[in-house]
Design a protein that fits this description.
With 80 residues, the chain is mostly helical. It has helices at residues 6-22, 27-59. The longest helix has 33 residues, at 27-59.
Length: 80
């Protein structure tokens, strides 16, 4: 089974949180859901970190090699 995409992971995380907050599951099932939630959260962080790296690459770097994260003129960053 493949990993769910970012949006699917968020929806499932919300479901898990509702189940755990509702207190309707026993301890064993709560632990299973918690473990699933941790796995989904790690997947979300991986996707977000990848997206952030892509954005930094697209934005370029400053003269000293630091990622340019704020909007600036062309002289503020170089590409490639």
């Amino acid at each position: 089974m493949s990993e769910p995409n970012f949006e699917e992971s968020l929806v499932r995380l919300e479901e898990i949180i509702r189940q755990l907050d509702g207190g309707s599951t026993d301890l064993e099932m709560s632990l299973v859901r918690y473990e699933e939630g941790v796995r989904l959260l790690k997947n979300c962080y991986t996707v977000l970190n990848s997206a952030q790296r892509k954005i930094e690459i697209l934005r370029g770097t400053s003269a000293d090699g630091q990622p340019v994260l704020e909007t600036g003129g062309e002289e503020d960053f170089k590409t490639g």
